[in-house]
Amino acid sequence: MRIVADDNGHLFNDVTLRSSGDDSMPETSDRKDDHIRIIEEEDVETSGTGFADVEFVHEALPEIHRDEIDTTTTLFGHELAVPIVIESMTGGHPNTTKINRALAEAAQEVGVAMGVGSQRAGIELDDEDLLESYTVVRDAAPDAFLYGNVGAAQLLEYDVDDVETAVEMIDADAMAIHLNFLQEAVQPEGDVDAQGCLEAIEHIASDLSVPIVVKETGNGISRETARRLADADVDAIDVAGQGGTTWSGIESYRAAAVGADRQEKVGQLFRAWGVPTAVSTIEAANEHDCVIASGGVRSGLDVAKAVALGARAGGLAKPFLRPAGQGTEAVVDFLETLALELRTAMFVTGSASVEDLREAEYVVLGRTQEYLTQRRQ
Question: Its Enzyme Commission number (predicted)?
């Protein structure tokens, strides 16, 4: 595989475009490295989560002490100090080991949950350096709530034992199954066969040794899909709605680098596609009692709004990348800032606990209210 540079000096893998059935694992690993670089260097953010349309009703007489507010919550019986999830980001390339170590050490120190990126490379490649990019998380966070990650499309190829391999790889407390079919549709080498995925998810959910979280990757989950997942007995839904990092946009940059002009244009066209995170959180929470809200969550106030809308926790990914590159201390500092923002929102809504926050008064305005109104018709 040849390495080439674009006009800006950025390095790319000069892959040969192939059918989705010939997606070799070394390229899967190198793609992970591409993704991190693009996220750090390019414009891959979209707006429109809907959180700006959600406004808490201020409580002028909260009658509580801010520093005595209880921010703990539980996820599958595991206590979190703060209802925050460091969302699945990376793994599968030796360059990502440092990032995952810093994230995991911070998750351990602060008491939040963390997921790893897709473990496909770890399952299918015999490479100790690559494998360490995953196993480092449990080594660094022996007590933290950690979840693994495989793609729904891979479940058509994997049996339960393969997914158990991913569980054992990081001694996972849960396993995420990610839905990323828009991303796959834009990838020049993407896997676009989505047939039979729901049945495969249901099979894994019934037989796996740990709980299953089904998560989108930036385009949201509608109430109809949430209902189908609830009927399939998945243990949680991570909505990963529209309004944050756009994987369609990321793959558009990759497509441009290899001269795949059609995929580049499709990626840009669908850059802001999806169900806004606030809407997706409300709809999913009406269908399932364990929802994680991610997708454009950028502050502790956003986490508070997500919880009030029905989520068990709020998840962030991209905002952790830069701190992770700086080291554990920077990630801890960012987490503590998020926690203070959340605690402040709880204080001025009179919420002494996360359970109280779920009952906090809020109003929904603007486009988000219009969207919800149209969906209820």
Answer: 5.3.3.2
